[in-house]
Write a structure and sequence with these properties.
about 550 residues; 4-stranded mixed beta sheet; 17 helices; about 20% strand
Length: about 550
Amino acid sequence: MSAQPSVQSLIDEINQRVQDKILEQSNANLLIKLINNADSLEEAISIATLGTVYKKTGFQFTPKLEKTGNTIHYFKKNEDLSFHTDDTKPVNKLIIGDNYVALQNLLIQYKNQIDVIYIDPPYGKDSMGEFAKTNYDNAITRDNLLSMLYPRLQLAKQLLADDGVIFCSIDDKNQAYVKCLFDDVFGEHNYVDCLHWKKKKQPSFLAKHTAKVMEYVLVYAKKWENLEKLSIEPISDATKKIINLTNQDAIRHFKAGVRVKCGLSGIIPKGVYKIKTMEVEYLNDIIFENGETQNEVDVKAKFSVSQEKIDKYIHDHLLFITVNKGLRRDVSESERTKAKSITDLLLDWGDNQDSEKELHDIFIDKVFDYAKPTKLITNLIKSTMKEESIVLDFFAGSGTTGHSVLELNKLNNDNQVFILCQMNENLDDALTTATDNAQKEIIQNQINLCNKIRRPHELSEIMVERMRRVMFGKSLNGNSNFPWIEDNEPYGGNLDVYEIADVANFESADGKTPFDVIDETLYGKEKFSTVKEKIDWVCQNFDKTQKNLE
């Protein structure tokens, strides 16, 4: 018979887990305090198990504990960093601060309203080596990665609309662990796919064993039964170019995804047009209804947008034609070729070289590393086939998701809105603690950029500067001497920048109470007409923002 553990042995085991870097010291301190105050040994043993395993899907990690404090966290607008270029366009948001607190505050306005979430969490530049350097002040081990993600995914799930979808980029070493975590939070039945993204054009000749050219994108639905069809198809330069119709050639061949623009007359000229294997006398002889061809043709053609959008494209003489091979009616069910709207191999969806060039064209000097290309995120968002979405990225990094939403709006005349969340960092402190020479160079370039635009040495300034350059076409100092503007028109649009402020829930000084400092208009509310309305709203909504992770 095994000996009954003592309170001290339980504490010794927790301390050992701290030494083994499995349990964070702050979590250990809280557990030891609870054990010492337990009413019985049985209760102490139950408390100690919180620091040993977290086991649902066959893997173990130590979850962070949530503790309610007396400090209310709320949004405060940064007027200096915010800017509007066109008040007829929607307002995008950038939130600077701890994304856990940011998500808590977003729930006040956006619960069950976010259509698309894309995240690229900080899984480490060395694929979770002994210690991974990140924008955070701690060294993230895999245990910390899962523990950090778990409560944030719980909040993200509450934010997603019932037909919403979440995409998560992850590397090969962490994909299996993070997928298990997603299975726990979202449910394995809501798993959609694990996409393979080719992140490098060519493998390294210095590869020790196998060349690492792939990363992964996990795809989960909030509720599988409510998820609209995703349409993720490989898109290359050959299939996205615009073809102008003229009277040359009798037969036109249009690949799936080609934008077909009418001639100067606005009328599709006579001739035989072939879309894959569909052949008709005139292209305008095809009868479209509710986005699908009604003619008895070899292969049905289907638009990837709504009927209203089709009408607009026809009016503007711009058609977007795709082919769905799975809708043939002239074959039996067993012979039918299964339609595959999601391909799990993402080729020609941008790569690391593309993202490096994009950032070079915007900033000239290298100020970010390991950023994702806009083409990857643009195609992921577009795959939801929604023309108006709220897109959230709470590990925003270099701001690529915001840039991608702006590009998508420009291409399709959509009205997508982005919300970005990013932890801030003092660049001078980061430079002092950095040990890698390449990382030191990037941080120094970031500091130099802040000096040029005469802004504080903060990481958030760099992301805001990217948004300003691509939306406004100018740097904060008024210069437009960066390559991106030579080949692109500014997107326009509006950006409100929020920071996270704190107030004690017991503050009673005149003008400083939570009811005075919290601005309801930042949460989509009109100004309250009475003090009682304001008090009721704050009391009902901000209790969750007092919960901290220990």
